[in-house]
Amino acid sequence: MSETWEPGGADKAIRRLAEDARKAAARLNLASTRQKNEALEAIARRLAAEREAIRAANQADLGVARAAGVPATVVNRLELTGRRFASMAQGLLDVAALPDPIGEVVEEWTRPNGLRIAKQRVPMGVIGLIYEARPNVTVDAAAICLKAGSAALLKGGKEAARSNEALVGVIQGALTEAGLPPTAVQAVPGGREGAAALMRAVGLVDCLIPRGGAGLIRSVVQDSRVPVIETGAGVCHVYVDAAADPDMATDIIVNAKTTGTATCNAAETLLVHRDVAARFLPGAAARLRDFGVELRGCEVTRRFAPWATPATEEDWAAEYLDLVLAVRVVDSLDEALAHIARYGTRHSEAIVTADAGAARRFQAEVDAAAVYWNASTRFTDGGEFGFGAEIGISTQKLHARGPMGLREITSHKYVITGDGQVRP
Amino acid sequence: MSETWEPGGADKAIRRLAEDARKAAARLNLASTRQKNEALEAIARRLAAEREAIRAANQADLGVARAAGVPATVVNRLELTGRRFASMAQGLLDVAALPDPIGEVVEEWTRPNGLRIAKQRVPMGVIGLIYEARPNVTVDAAAICLKAGSAALLKGGKEAARSNEALVGVIQGALTEAGLPPTAVQAVPGGREGAAALMRAVGLVDCLIPRGGAGLIRSVVQDSRVPVIETGAGVCHVYVDAAADPDMATDIIVNAKTTGTATCNAAETLLVHRDVAARFLPGAAARLRDFGVELRGCEVTRRFAPWATPATEEDWAAEYLDLVLAVRVVDSLDEALAHIARYGTRHSEAIVTADAGAARRFQAEVDAAAVYWNASTRFTDGGEFGFGAEIGISTQKLHARGPMGLREITSHKYVITGDGQVRP
Questions:
Q1: Are residues A221 and A362 located together in one domain of the fold?
Q2: Of A362, A420, B137, B264, which one's alpha carbon is 20 to 30 angstroms from that of B164?
């Protein structure tokens, strides 16, 4: 959308949206599971019924983007293909099928003075999302927020503005049909100015979740006055220990590198204990080459895979999101731990070993959301963890860490019942 | 401390401190419960042994503060009296006696593919505290962070700089004695510049907790790039419903207003349903007057307590922290809920009623950390909840909400064990 605002206009407009969202959140807080599920199912139904109108809006976005010379990867993500329509619809039904997190009593106890304290799961309130020009995220994020009882303010990339407007229109129709306030899901207009105003809406927006590339996330973390859950960057390592089974290690690194290569849980660096290098590296390097993976290796690595490019300092810190893998041979578990502490992004880290002591040390000392022993880093994902749909993967330690499903975007309150207790 | 820095000097100095804190945190993460408790006990012992030196530093701070004409309330909080020494020592032993939150497996499950996922409680890492010139907070906060396995960067008010330096010296001696890194607890020097640099230490400090007045908290929430847990402001209400027992209601409002008047969980506004006003207000107002409470009442209130001052719009939003109470008669539960939604700070809210339906509605609809039925708001406190020591009371919805004890300042990680699983 190409709204232009007077100075301060963006703040005023976004505060109005956010105030509407707060009112909607108060009603969502009291909505029954059935009502929320009906809304989710109605969205799925209406997406199918209004597919042509949505596609027209999407084609308009695509036309503008192509004319503006937007990169092909961005255009690809922008397009609402038949496959993406199917996946949005399935996502909605999947979320409807998940248990409702709201109202669950997480803990309950009675104090010596007779006060009964229940820690109860409640909605976050108003959740802001800032993401790239991927209109399918609009529907996925709205669905998760809705089921978790929160109103959503969705700020997608400006290239997708028409598509998002069409999708939010469909969602709002479905909310009304289910007896819920349409303002429970709103698109935030106005490009960067709109995003900046959203980041300043302290007291109205309970938390902001940025989803996208490292640059987008960094700018939200730097600029937001509203609490942020940082997601994203994954410089993930697979460490092949001295006591690793070379075949298992090969399967794991090939999987961690070559499936979902552009996702944050893909491996970017392979660390190899020198005692296993001769038995493991030649075969693993050949397998990786078969999959089209370019290797950037340290000196020792290049003895076993001479066709690898020499690795530089930058390679150890790189999140390639591509068929490129940095490889380093280390002298010890300690050296592997130090490398991960220095270059890792606290996302997902794996050790492959038959030595339980080494595994225990690795799992205790590595500071990351998910620490694997004898498995691929690619499992760090809401679906693979059994959470169902996820809204992102947190790489910070506050609030949620790792895959964020429905429970991870809720808050709680203490509900306390007495019979007249006062504090002595 | 009166350090002066060159441009950028504060950032460099604080980053160095924070890097040392990160290294210390990695070691604390692996410390045994016994080692942490030994350190806590050693701090208590050394506080007693070095009491005279600490008092001398404190006297120096007090002298400077008095000469500078610092307000009496600030001077009072600054002084390390015998009672405060006793309370710091007892606090240390209490924290040592609490169960260790670290390593606890919060949840554990096995996926259909055989992956075992354990959600394990881990330390936050490096916690920054920004607080006023209250040196006893230095010891209390250090103790809680230490037991929860995190390194602490303590930025107290500049008036207490000498006292804090002396206390941190004692703490560091005790840490060394217990075989733990002394840099696990550090004082942050340099007044406002030091605090500002701490707020910019993204990637080194995992979270910042401001403790103090509304101004201090607002400035940290506004300026910090590091994730913040907002604590504090409490405009708490007691709502006396139509079906309230007037005697119980009187006991509760007197307790909520006149004990711990300067604390955030004290009541600031009394809401009274009009149907109970005649039976409740005259007696309650008289009791409150006996306790020296000044009333600021709406028109109807003043019919029952003519000596009350007329309340203005500002009174409904005021956090008096004093023997002053705003009183408003409302027409309905709905009006009470609307008043609380508008003026409350999401801290602690209470309903007094014999009507279970009204109580259920109140507890479901009020958006606050703690919602009471037939009890005083003064129970919102780590000790009263049974958490033991607390580091503050969160009024935000992200991460922790309500009293924050040991568990509330931890994070978690997923520890995943497989036998070679790769993602299809």
A1: no
A2: B264
